[in-house]
Amino acid sequence: MATVVLFSVNRAARTAARRCLTPRLTGPVRGGEPHLPLSSTHSPSLTLLPGSGRFSRGSGVRFISHGPAGRPAAGRTRSGALLLAGAATAAVAGLLANADHFQRAEMATKVPRPVQETGDEEGDILERCRGFMSLPVTDVSVLQGRKEEMRTRMEMLIMETQADFCKALQEVDGGKFKVDRWERKEGGGGISCVMQDGKVFEKAGVNVSVVFGNLTEEAAKQMRSRGKVLKGKDGKLPFCAMGVSSVIHPKNPHIPTVHFNYRYFEVEEEDGSKQWWFGGGTDLTPVYINKEDAFHFHNTLKEACDKHHPKYYPDFKKWCDRYFYIRHRGETRGIGGIFFDDVDSPSQEEAFSFVKSCARTVVPCYLPIVYKHLNDSFTEEEKDWQQVRRGRYVEFNLVYDRGVKFGLATPGSRIESILMSLPLTARWEYMHEPAKGTPEAKMLEVLQNPKEWV
Predict the structure, then answer these.
(1) Residue of 259, 296, 298, 309 marked catalytic
(2) 298 catalytic, yes or no?
(3) Alpha carbons 26 and 368: distance in angstroms, whole number
(4) pTM of the model
(5) What is the pLDDT of residues 58-89, one digit of tens each?
């Protein structure tokens, strides 16, 4: 039987007084109102505050390299994601809902408020670095010298995302991440943060990688096959790729596994011009279905997407369901989230702003769910079912995940970082099938028939 740390009300109040915390979250609100944050974390009586508005950027946004409903365009591959996950070897790789969908979710309040999205790029590089888990992969003096370049802004974003998520996880678990810096001899390196056998998390990994060099001919060929026109100089194509990726496996089967990955790719051509694109996503893999959790998770992602375009969430949600599909089992890995790749419009600034909005959902979309189920009891049978579901997670990652497969096949790959995504323990039972009408059978039905949660 797993044990967890229990936080007293007094300690929670003291913590809330010390830090800025996200408010208690609600489920659907009648009348189609936006998501409404609630007031003080110190008072049991909660007062609704006015909701924040949302906007879209109109319909003139093209979705690069995917077809209708988020499906990959015919004859194309996602080698941008592959190269980052393989060459870097670290990437393993709204509230407009039906009012009667289900009752409001009571989420915990002890979650750090995300960093504000405006103006942070203009801050002092060195000062911002003080809050990271480690110094950035790129030398700070180099970052300061090219402060306005996208590769610097993205590296700072992924470092901040890693630090914010690691600190939030440490606070709930009570443990500490091991920080492991590594270098890639061809250029660049990464920072792997891993916490293993904690009180709450059996295995938690948050990786950053920043790599550069020249594209291999095979990688360039894959990019050209999906429509990229790349003209190198003397047969060489300088590139830079960077990203942050994470997989969290909790001990308690009522706390879901979560995964996210956000990345940037840049290629310099013969004339000095650069092609660039972003990719990423966040998805949830529960062991037992909880509609309130599913709504909260998807709604948080939808709100981030809706700030930029009304088609982002529905298209990227479908894309996620299609990607995280275990074909030989006929089921999805989890209940999805969002997934996208090759985003290079409508402008670099707006694409980066979208990715930044998504990256800043990783704490508010997941940590309230963790705190909500922190004290949930569970049986040996429920733990066994968690182990079986983890086996499915392993199957997807080793059989289908393009980033893992590419990384394992790349000479000089950092295997420990690639396999960080795998759980510490898992189980495979011969001909396992849950009894009809059980919570396990209900979970399986959802995985075999993906749902719309918002």
Answers:
(1) 259
(2) no
(3) 11
(4) 0.74
(5) 333 433 433 333 333 333 333 343 444 333 33
